[in-house]
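User: tokens in, sequence out, please.
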């Protein structure tokens, strides 16, 4: 289950910033049967360019998967959580876990499939080290890992066969990718989701546009439940108040926006704050540092050599 993010208090100085809506593209899983990993080819790579708001329907695989957006932000959703993944991050999904994908921005989506021996899970880790890999993990993407992924061949099984030299190169790249994944640092970039259908509907609406309403009563209007019932469900299912949970979403979006090197004033406006100073004051009160320092630290990690971590 994704671990909760820092929670931030509500701000009176926020107001919604509207975007023009457009109907989403809905597509099925993108030919996973043409990229099946095996003992001989333990890592397979797939590439597709998808526009913002494209949704890939829920699906699962008998192998593990890593999703990396080399450009643009994506959102991956599983049964009990959703993960906002900017280009500086990757998401590990264990075998058999149903997941859906939403393009938050136009994205170059690269998917890696990993062969998993029967009963095993992880990027070729020892059996005693498998536990963290049996759940979703958001991982930091090093510059080396990003380069390796871009070099992996993305030829489907119904395409031209790779020659011996290309297969040898793929094998070497695969070994380095597995090594980088084993040494990648896991980060908290997830938001819990409920089982209750009414609450799930509300949470999905907040994820789509967390600044659309200011009060729980407004958000609860379309659920068929009273604000009091919704407030109780939040505490029961997610262990948070609605205000705290929505701030998890806002913080996750701020981190994703910071990954695109947006200036603080643009991040503040994107999140519905009517001035950068109001956004800055809120972050200072909550985390004890400026937004530039707090959000910049998310990027500074990219250039460091992290080992392990969960």
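Assistant: Sequence out:
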């Amino acid at each position: 289950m994704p671990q909760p993010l820092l929670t931030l208090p509500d701000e009176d100085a926020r107001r919604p910033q509207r975007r023009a809506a457009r109907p989403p593209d809905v597509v099925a899983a993108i030919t996973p049967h043409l990229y099946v990993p095996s003992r001989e080819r333990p890592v397979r790579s797939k590439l597709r360019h998808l526009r913002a708001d494209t949704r890939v329907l829920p699906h699962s695989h008998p192998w593990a998967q890593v999703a990396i957006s080399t450009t643009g932000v994506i959102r991956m959703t599983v049964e009990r959580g959703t993960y906002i993944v900017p280009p500086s991050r990757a998401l590990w999904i264990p075998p058999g876990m149903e997941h859906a994908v939403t393009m938050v921005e136009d994205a170059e989506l690269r998917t890696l499939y990993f062969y998993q021996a029967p009963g095993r899970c992880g990027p070729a880790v020892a059996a005693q080290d498998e536990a963290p890999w049996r759940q979703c993990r958001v991982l930091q993407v090093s510059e080396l890992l990003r380069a390796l992924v871009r070099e992996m061949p993305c030829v489907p099984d119904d395409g031209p066969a790779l020659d011996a030299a290309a297969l040898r190169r793929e094998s070497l790249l695969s070994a380095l990718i597995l090594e980088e994944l084993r040494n990648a640092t896991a980060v908290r970039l997830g938001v819990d989701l409920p089982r209750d259908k009414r609450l799930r509907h509300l949470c999905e609406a907040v994820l789509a546009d967390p600044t659309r309403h200011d009060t729980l009563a407004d958000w609860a209007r379309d659920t068929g439940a009273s604000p009091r019932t919704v407030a109780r469900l939040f505490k029961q299912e997610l262990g948070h108040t609605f205000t705290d949970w929505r701030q998890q979403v806002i913080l996750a979006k701020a981190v994703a926006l910071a990954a695109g090197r947006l200036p603080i004033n643009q991040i503040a406006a994107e999140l519905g704050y009517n001035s950068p100073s109001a956004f800055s004051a809120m972050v200072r009160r909550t985390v004890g540092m400026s937004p530039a320092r707090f959000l910049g630290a998310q990027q500074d990690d990219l250039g460091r050599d992290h080992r392990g971590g969960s």
